[in-house]
Every structure is written in structure tokens, then in C-alpha cells.
Write a structure and sequence with these properties.
Largest sheet: 6 strands, mixed
CATH class of the largest domain: Alpha Beta
Shape: globular
CATH architecture of the largest domain: 3-Layer(aba) Sandwich
Distance between the termini: 41 Å
Strand content: 5-15%
Oligomer: single chain
Order of helices and strands: HEHEHEHEEHEHEHEHEEHHHHHEHHH
Number of domains: 2
Number of strands: 11
């Protein structure tokens, strides 16, 4: 074979070398891309600026995204807006938190798209520290000792009480009325959100208002009183992670990794509140109407139960005879919702998702990554 000669031969030779270099470089980049992290978008998680949910903001600093291979994008929304943002099936959020009472009372209206319902993923915590606050000195305080006194409870219920409709707080008022022989249907509970109820109570528009831990903290700062603790009635709201069924099917491994990341975060914070609360408090002080000191944060968190793992959740919440029995709470809520006319029949029994082993979730993510390249 004759070698290329002259100017044209040199150009041809350099052209071949250039093509070969580009080809080899492209193959190297392709190989690198295949071995790099999957280019999946972050899982968008709706959180609210409350002392419990805010623990998830520790995920990045703890390196959990790298540990599990799932990136998170935490978006701050009002608690009441989270289920609607998820149910809209838009691009706002993928996963969020929702109370079990809220879920059972709203699920029929939220699940208008029967082929892609909002599903309950997994229990996250038990909210025990809520209650009712008042700035009216005439409102009696209800305790475990005096709640058997019908006259005291009836006096309490004679005042203007604010609580969100079909919430665990309205259920507490309902249960209290039952104990005092008051027809629950005769109770006039004013439908209001937690923040609006707090402001109305402070300004005299309400005598008593439902309060989460944030509102309780703020009320005590402003010379208000806690006049009823829901834990005294044995009510603890189970808060769960929820998402659309399509999201779970499409990103099951990521959703389950989020559950594990949540438990890692709560275990980290609660294991040493003095030294591990900094990131959570910083987030709260930026996004919440209440600015927490460490002492206030510790007092707020003390009103809640945080399981530290999937196994503990199975034992303490999902087991039939567990301390915070999911099934027992579900039956109580259904009975309450039927009695007040929100439901005509009990909702079908809820079954949180069966969690895959960590290795199975990792294998699923690998398979999903490979399918994106092949």
C-alpha cells in the first residue's frame, strides 16, 4: 500500500487522527457517564417549619444522599397545603407528610383520579404534644384529674373553640363532649387553621384555639395558657409520609430511601438534642413564625414520639397490640368521622408499604439507572 504523499495526504492523515481521538474521547465520556451517579431529578419533599418535620433538613449534612443514592429537594409549604400540592399531580412536590386523621377525612375528595390515588407510604412519628391554648383567664383548664367532672368540661365547651374541621383537634373536642354527656352534634367548633386560630385567640375572637407545638410555644411566650393537652385523652396523631401511586411506582427505591433517611435524621437529632439540633433550629428560625431557643426546641420535641428505625416502627406502631397502634387509631378515627357525618362508612383498611431491604432498593436504583442508558 502506498503511503499518502503531499499536502492532501497530510490533511487526510490528520483528519483520521482527529476522528479517532474524538471517538476514543467519546467512548471514555460514555463509560464515565454510565458509571457516574444517575441523572434522576431530586425527590421533591414537602416539609413544614415545625420542630418535628424540620429534622429532615439534616439529611445533606449527614451525607445521607450519598449513603442511599437518593437526592432530596426539601420545599417548605404550609402544613394544610401539602396534601393538595401532592394530589394535584403537578411538578410541585413528589412526597410529603400528612396526619392520619387528615388522610382519612380527606382521602375521598383528594383521590378524584381513581387510577392514581394519593397513597399512605409509611408512619413517620406520633404527635402527642398538641393541645388547646387560651388567653381568656375565665376558661377552665382540663386535666386528667378533672375531665371526669362534667360541669367543668361543659363549662369549657361553652366557650368559643376553634379547630380545623375533621382534624385530630376536632376529634378531641368530640371525645371530650362524649365524656361530659354533651351531644357532639350540638358542639359549635369554629373551623380554623392552627395559625389563624392562634391569632384569633390572642385577639379575643376565640376563647380557645387548637395548637400544635409551635402555637403552644408562642402562646406561652405571650402569656397564654395551655388549657388542654390532647395526650391526656390518649390521642396521638400518627403522621405519615404520603405520595401519589404513580410516584411510588416510578421511584419506589427513592421513596423508600426517603423513609430510611427520615429515621436516620430523627435518630441523629434526638440522640443528642444539645449538640445535634443546630441545623433544625436554624431552619425553623428562618422559616417559622416562632423563633426557637434550644430549651424551647427541646420542650417542643418532648411532646412527640419518634421511632428511630423501620424495625421500631413495625414494633411500636404497626404491630396490632403496639403502644401507638396504627389499627386502633384508624378504627377510632373512622368511628369519629362516621359519627360527625364526614364519612358514611369506614375507609378500607390502610396498609403502609412493605419496605424492601436496603440492598434490594440499591439494586432497583441500579436497574433504573441502566434502563436510562440502554
Amino acid at each position: 500500500m502506498n503511503r499518502p504523499t503531499g499536502k492532501l495526504g497530510s490533511v487526510s492523515m490528520w483528519f483520521c487522527l482527529l476522528v479517532a481521538t474524538i471517538t476514543l474521547s467519546g467512548c471514555g465520556s460514555y463509560k464515565l457517564a454510565r458509571n457516574s451517579e444517575p441523572e434522576l431529578p431530586p425527590l421533591k419533599v414537602a416539609i413544614s417549619p415545625y420542630q418535628d418535620i424540620a429534622m429532615l433538613v439534616n439529611a445533606k449534612q449527614l451525607g445521607l444522599e450519598k449513603k442511599y443514592g437518593t437526592k432530596l429537594d426539601c420545599l417548605t409549604l404550609a402544613w394544610e397545603d401539602i396534601p393538595y400540592a401532592i394530589a394535584s399531580a403537578g411538578d410541585t412536590v413528589d412526597v410529603g407528610f400528612m396526619g392520619l386523621t387528615d388522610y382519612l377525612s380527606k382521602i375521598d375528595k383528594l383521590n378524584t383520579a381513581k387510577d392514581d390515588p394519593l397513597i399512605l407510604v409509611y408512619p413517620a412519628l406520633v404527635f402527642r404534644g398538641g393541645g388547646f391554648i387560651s388567653f381568656n383567664p375565665k376558661v377552665p383548664e382540663i386535666t386528667q384529674a378533672n375531665m371526669i367532672d362534667r360541669s367543668v368540661v361543659q363549662k369549657f365547651l361553652s366557650y368559643k373553640v376553634g379547630a380545623q374541621r375533621s382534624s385530630c383537634f376536632q376529634m378531641v373536642v368530640y371525645m371530650l363532649g362524649r365524656k361530659a354527656g354533651v351531644d357532639p352534634h350540638q358542639l359549635h367548633v369554629i373551623d380554623t387553621t392552627l395559625n389563624d386560630g392562634f391569632l384569633a385567640a390572642q385577639n379575643g375572637g376565640l376563647d380557645v384555639a387548637a395548637a400544635g407545638l409551635t402555637q403552644k410555644t408562642e402562646a406561652l411566650k405571650r402569656n397564654g395558657r395551655l388549657v388542654l393537652n390532647i395526650n391526656d385523652l390518649g390521642v396521638g396523631e400518627i403522621n405519615c409520609l404520603v405520595c401519589k401511586q404513580s410516584c411510588y411506582r416510578r421511584r419506589r427505591a427513592d421513596v423508600e430511601n426517603l423513609v430510611r433517611m427520615w429515621f436516620d435524621c430523627t435518630r441523629y437529632v434526638t440522640s443528642d438534642l444539645d449538640n445535634h439540633s443546630t441545623t433544625t433550629i436554624a431552619y425553623l428560625n428562618k422559616h417559622s413564625s416562632t423563633h426557637y431557643t434550644l430549651a424551647e426546641f427541646k420542650r417542643a420535641v418532648s411532646g412527640e414520639y419518634f421511632p428511630n428505625s423501620v424495625q421500631e416502627t413495625e414494633e411500636q406502631i404497626l404491630s396490632g397490640d403496639s403502644r401507638y397502634s396504627f389499627a386502633k387509631q384508624e378504627r377510632m378515627i373512622n368511628s369519629y368521622l362516621i359519627d360527625i357525618g364526614v364519612r358514611t362508612a369506614a375507609a378500607p383498611p390502610l396498609r403502609p408499604i412493605p419496605m424492601m431491604p436496603v440492598t434490594a432498593a440499591r439494586d432497583m436504583r441500579t436497574a433504573n439507572r441502566e434502563s436510562r442508558w440502554n
